[in-house]
Design goal:
Layout (H helix, E strand, L loop, with lengths): L5 E4 H11 L4 E3 L3 E4 L7 E4 L19 E3 L15 E4 L21 H16 L2 H7 L6 E5 L6 H11 L6 E4 H4 L6 H9 L1 H10 L6 E6 L18 H14 L7 E7 L17 E4 L5 H11 L1 H5 L9 H7 L5 H18 L23 H10 L23 H19 L5 E7 L6 H12 L3 E5 L9 H16 L3 E6 L2 H4 L11 H12 L32 E8 L2 H6 L8 E4 L6 H14 L5 H11 L6 H15 L6 H10 L5
Parallel strand pairs: 1-6, 7-10, 7-11, 8-9, 9-10, 12-15, 12-16, 13-14, 14-15
Antiparallel strand pairs: 2-5, 3-4
GO molecular function: ATP binding; ATP hydrolysis activity; metal ion binding
Cofactor: Mg(2+)
Catalytic activity: ATP + H2O = ADP + phosphate + H(+)
Length: 654
């Protein structure tokens, strides 16, 4: 016999209950008998009572109680599948829900997407959802770089929702050494939701399951190879069947987090499973400011932060810092304040000096030192100054034009809506200063992410490890809104040798693909995340909204090899690094050195310029020869004959 379903209008029921129970005191777990006027007596129970923050005391569970007034908000939940309560607007989040109080900063656009895709349908009554013939979103995936607050967001959203206490699972904990136990662990996570689904039907409460490090258990099936036990594949199959199998549940929300979305099984990402995929990237300036405020909230309230600390200025100067790195920056600043009030020679006696704890104050100077100590993982990871120890010398008009052209390209990458990817090949003889010029451009452009891919990083690596290292450098660049990659000494990176010639075809093919790959589109315009993390936004640093942008500068001393291998044609532009080949250019370099080191007089500088004449010399090679001549001439100044002999030793034809 089919059970008859009764529909009750939530708005009518609310007004009726408020009228009947006006000025009555209600207590959690109190039983209430209601007659909605349809010939059926409804037996209800007060699940919880939350009072306003005005005069009453707030409480819930067995101790919560309050007085019903005209402002009381009722929320009804049917415990029987045969009774459907139609409510137009259900409160999904707790009344005290506040991102800043939860330690989450700059979540604007991402949370709007999460709410629209995953929670908006749950605001309306189950009856309306049933009439529309749709199911709720069952899965949400948060992905992005480490330290951006994915785990914190998932935990805090789970706490803020009016739902069952979320189950939080670390991915590796699911795995078990016993056969079949890993799959059973997955089934146990869904057991309570299955019971509620059978008992309450469409009125079932929401169950949230949070998977941290999802990539640990949901790798692409078949990726473990013949040596694997097959447990990984079975776990993925079990999870897929529970989310969207034959007896799929409509009362669950699975929230997964991962740093490696590329490792997940593609079946897990299709609609009906983890269909809402939100990137939690690096925070923009607005997001960083919010995160800094959250982390310094207590010290500001307790007057432990000096007035000279400007959080807005810190937010501007910490581009590409993740939320976790911003927290580390603050800890580093506090450590300097602690150290300032500690006497290392008296650690046995407590170590404190002066007023002790009363003198602990975090100042601007502490943050300045912390900025030197804490570096972002996706920032300018290289010490660019060491690539141009002698500075950049404007030795010729040709060089000045090249530098100007490269600076124009950096502005094009930042501002042009049609140039998300600009690639430049810089070629010339060894010792002509190509790397120095590229790193100088990187410093002047003020790109938040700068990475140098150099052969010396891969000494002793096999071909596969090199491929992974190069691909990772590009992946890291895609995580920043604005990035600059310098691929130094390309021919060495490809294991090129002119005898044969020989080179690594796999590395060549990888570079051919990566150099032409356009960075991923970034649709958001404001940052996300949290106390330990945050997200991204475009529009920072003069960047045109709508996508991530990448400038690649390739450097080679073997242009013919790159032409023959077709790698040169993968670059959009090619520039030749000019050599010093005029007397005026030689004299310009010598006069520049005289300003730095007074080891050559004007007369000898003029003689060197005359003797060198129009010989073709790389600027780096010229300075190396001058350094050698300086050591040979000590304690006297450099003589022209000594300098010319050193240039000949370096292979310059004079």
């Amino acid at each position: 016999m089919t059970q008859q379903t009764m529909s009750v209008d939530g708005a009518v029921l609310t007004e009726w209950v408020r009228k009947i129970l006006d000025t009555h005191v209600l207590t959690a777990r109190q039983s209430v008998f209601l007659d909605p006027g349809q010939g059926v007596l409804l037996v209800g129970q007060v699940i919880s009572v939350t009072t306003s923050s005005g005069t009453g005391t707030s409480g819930s569970g067995t101790s919560g109680q309050g007085i019903v007034t005209g402002e009381t908000i009722f929320e009804f939940q049917s415990q029987s599948p045969s009774v459907v309560i139609r409510e137009m607007n259900r409160s999904l989040f707790k009344q005290e829900f506040n991102f800043e109080a939860l330690g989450i900063g700059g979540l604007d656009v991402q949370f709007a997407d999460i709410f629209r895709r995953a929670f908006a349908s749950r605001v309306y009554s189950p009856a309306l959802v049933q009439e529309l013939g749709i199911t709720h979103v069952r899965g949400l995936l948060l992905y992005g770089p480490p330290g951006t607050g994915k785990t914190l967001i998932a935990r805090q959203i789970g706490k803020a929702l009016k739902a069952k206490e979320p189950k939080i699972v670390n991915g590796p904990e699911v795995l078990n050494k016993f056969v079949g136990q890993s799959e059973e662990n997955i089934r146990n996570l869904f057991a309570e939701a299955e019971i509620d689904e059978k008992k309450f039907g469409i009125n079932s409460p929401l169950h949230i399951i949070i998977f941290d490090e999802l990539d640990a258990i949901c790798k692409q099936r078949g990726s473990t190879g013949a040596s694997g036990s097959g447990v990984n594949d079975s776990v993925v199959n079990q999870l897929l069947s529970k989310i969207d199998g034959v007896n799929s549940l409509n009362n669950i929300l699975l929230i997964g987090m991962t740093n490696r979305m590329d490792m997940l099984d593609e079946a897990l990402l299709r609609p009906g499973r983890l269909e809402v995929q939100i990137e939690i990237g690096l925070p923009d300036e607005f997001g960083r400011n919010q995160i800094l405020k959250i982390h310094t909230n207590d010290m500001r309230k307790s007057k432990r932060m000096a007035d000279d600390v400007d959080l807005k200025d810190l937010a501007k100067r910490t581009r590409n810092f993740s939320g976790a790195e911003l927290a580390g920056l603050i800890r580093s600043a506090v450590s300097y304040a602690f150290a300032r009030n500690v006497d290392p020679s008296n650690l046995g006696g407590g170590g404190k000096t002066g007023g002790g704890e009363a003198d602990v104050l975090i100042t601007k100077a502490d943050f300045e030192m912390a900025l030197k100590e804490v570096r972002p993982a996706f920032g300018a990871s290289e010490d660019l100054d060491r690539y141009s120890l002698n500075g950049i010398i404007p030795y010729s008009a040709e060089f000045l034009k090249l530098r100007q052209d490269l600076m124009v390209l950096t502005e094009q990458v930042k501002k042009s809506p049609s140039s998300p990817l600009v690639t430049v090949l810089l070629w010339g003889t060894q010792g002509s200063g190509k790397t120095s010029l590229a790193t100088h451009i990187a410093k002047q452009s003020n790109f938040p992410f700068v990475k140098i891919i150099s052969p010396n990083q891969f000494v002793g690596y096999n071909e596969g490890s090199k491929l992974m290292g190069i691909a990772k450098a590009f992946d890291d660049a895609y995580k920043s809104n604005l990035s600059l990659l310098i691929i130094d000494d390309i021919e060495r990176l490809l294991d090129f040798t002119p005898i044969g010639p020989r080179f690594s075809n796999n590395l060549l093919q990888a570079l051919l693909v990566l150099v032409k790959k356009i960075p991923p589109y970034q649709a958001t315009t404001a940052g996300t995340t949290s106390g330990s993390g945050a997200t991204s936004g475009s529009g920072e640093g003069g960047i045109t909204a709508g996508g991530r942008r990448l400038l690649i500068i390739g450097i080679t001393s073997e242009p013919q090899f790159l032409q023959d291998s077709k790698l040169a044609s993968a670059f959009q532009l090619a520039y030749k690094q000019p050599l010093i080949r005029e007397k005026a250019a030689v004299l310009e370099c010598l006069n520049y050195r005289r300003k730095l080191v007074a080891d050559i007089d004007q007369l000898e500088a003029n003689r060197i310029a005359d003797l060198v004449g129009t010989a073709k010399i790389g600027v780096k090679k010229l300075f190396m020869a001058l350094e050698m001549a300086s050591e040979m001439s000590k304690p006297q100044t450099i003589k022209a004959d000594t300098a010319v002999q050193c240039l000949r030793d370096f292979g310059v034809n004079i």
